[in-house]
Amino acid sequence: MASFLSLSGTTRETELDQWIRNVRPMMVNHLRANISPQGTLPGTVVASPSRSHPNYYYHWVRDASLVMLAALDQNFVRVNGSQNLTSDELRDYIVLTRRHQNMTNPSGGPGEPKFNVDGSIFDEPWGRPQNDGPALRAMSMIKIANMWLDQGHEDSVRALLWDGSFTSVIKMDLEFVSHHWQDTCFDLWEETKGHHFYTQFVQRRSMIEGAKLARRLNDHTAADWYEKQARGLEQSLERYWDPNRGYIVETLDRDGGSDYKTSNLDTGVILGLLHGSLGDGFMAFSDERVIRTAQALEKSFQEIYTINHQGHWGVAIGRYPEDRYTGVEIVPSADGGNPWFLTTLALAEYYYRLAKEVKDSGKNLVGFSERGRDLVLKLQRHGDEFLNRARFHMGDNRMSEQINRQSGYMQGAHDLTWSYASFLTAIGHR
Ligand code: NOJ
Ligand code: NOJ
Fold first, then answer.
1. Ligand having the closest approach to the CA of 46
2. Rounded to the nearest whole angstrom, what is the distance from the C-alpha of residue 165 to the centroid of ligand 1?
3. What is the set of active-site residues?
4. Partners of 190 in beta bridges
5. CB of 190 shorter than 6 A to ligand 1
6. Could you tell me which of 220, 226, 221, 224 has the C-alpha nearest to residue 208?
7. N or C: which end of the chain has fewer CB within 10 A?
8. For strand 185-186 and strand 192-196, is the pairing parallel, antiparallel, or unpaired?
9. CA 209 remoteness from chain centre
10. What is the C-alpha separation between 318 and 307, in angstroms, rounded?
11. CA-based nearest residue to 4, from 388, 415, 397, 376
């Protein structure tokens, strides 16, 4: 938004710009506080400091990878030098990951979703495996590898991340994804077993980025194999568009877990695009199917959450309409579910990235009467509405997991690390 305004000659900072500038360092600090907190094995990213009701004091592979990805992106996290991750911190994260990868676990492979903070196996019953984990983890490691290669540290990459063998940190996850993306697994919400749009979309990114890194390191056989799997994933991803419902559904071929998500409408689809998009035209943000999915989500949550009926702010967004998770437990009816910060901020980020795509391509969008600059502005403002909605429910510039659908108060795990990561990536794209 800032760059757009300056192009048009108006550089005045809006109230929202100013607020973002003020709170960003605080958000970075809240996120940083959950990386290797005292008493955990270094490299551990706790999902939240909350240790009871709910206990989120674990290293979840999905959350940790997304947090590291957000943190690694200098543009998003650099506020001042001291807030950057140090190379010791990156090393800790890699060493801990190698440990996780090499312990026998109940999933029997890299899809194990979470670990205890002392680095040991969490062996209670859980929705496992969750095969988005290895893809996201590989993406975060590939980002480190590329950064080190750019800085001329191929020796560190070869020593810690990629020695060419199938057991090195990056290849272990990539090999797993490449051989197992056709398996069903639990979804990102840890509830439903099947094939999932979110999971396959991020798996595709891991295969494409993995192939690029393999070529950089002269492993062309691996690169060819990963590229082939990416093409297979693309074919599979086309299956999720449901022309009758008019949106992309999240789960196909369900073979276990919860069965009450009858609409199959899920913000996981938008999150998949945000986390997996490579800007290469495959299922672009401006793809009509994607736009219609974002609109269907907004309409559905607008209707079901009381706090969305007051009309002053943008729409608070949840995971999926039938959600029963209160942040502490599953209740037997669909009014247990609430809007979440990270899903509301995901819609903000989606509209910022859509605006950017429209601006760069000059494309018009089906269903919008505006054209050109007006369209870009409209999309950016819509993104800001979601951002303002999230802002309205923050307390003391902090974010929990959920927002009570009736009272608007924060609910569930406090200081959810992923909420902060989603804030930073959303404003990074603004
Ligand atoms: C905790 C999970 O993280 C959450 O997504 C799920 O809804 C509940 N457990 C119930 O399975
Ligand atoms: C519940 C969410 O459903 C899941 O996606 C997340 O990984 C865990 N909470 C930990 O934050």
1. 2
2. 35
3. 187, 190
4. none
5. yes
6. 226
7. N
8. antiparallel
9. 17
10. 12
11. 376
Task: State the ligand closest to the CA atom of 61.
Answer: 2
Residue 115: enclosing H or E segment and its boundaries?
Answer: strand 114-115
What is the 98 CA–ligand 1 centroid distance (Å)?
A: 26
The 3-state DSSP class for residue 403 equals strand
Angle between helices 197-216 and 169-180 (to 10 degrees): 130
Q: Is the CB of 384 under 6 A from ligand 1?
A: no
DSSP string, 136-190: HHHHHHHHHHHHHHHTT-HHHIIIII--SSTTSHHHHHHHHHHHHTTS-EE-TTS
- 350-378 burial: b if 16+ Cβ within 10 Å, else e: bbbbbbbbbbeeeeebeeeeeeeeebbbb
Is residue 257 within 8 Å of 183, Cβ to Cβ?
no
Tell how far the Cα of 64 is from the centroid of ligand 1, in angstroms. 17
Interior angle at CA 158, CA 155 and CA 163, nearest 5: 155
Atom of ligand 2 nearest to the CA of 325: 3
pLDDT of residue 78: 52
The whole-number pLDDT of residue 81 equals 56
CB 40 within 8 A of CB 96: no
Q: Is the CB of 187 under 6 A from ligand 1?
A: no
From the CA of 114, the nearest ligand is 2
Task: Return the residue whose CA atom lies nearest to atom 1 of ligand 1.
Answer: 190
Minimum CA distance residue for ligand 1 atom 2: 190
Q: Judging by beta carbons within 10 Å of its beta carbon (0-12, 13-18, 19+), is residue 41 exposed, middle or buried?
A: middle
Taking the centre of ligand 1 as the mean of its atom positions, its distance from the CA of residue 189, in whole angstroms, is 6
The pTM assigned to this predicted structure is: 0.96
189 lines ligand 1 (CB under 6 A): yes
Pairwise CA distance, residues 133 & 188, whole Å: 9
Q: Which residue has the CA at smallest separation from atom 5 of ligand 2? A: 189
Q: Please name the residue whose Cα sits nearest to atom 3 of ligand 2.
A: 189
CB atoms within 10 A of CB 102: 11
CA separation for the pair 185, 182 (Å, rounded): 9
pLDDT band at 3 (very low <50, low <70, confident <90, very high): very low
- Residue 312: what pLDDT? 75
Over residues 294-318, the pLDDT tens digits come to 999 999 999 999 999 987 789 999 9
3-state secondary structure of 22: helix
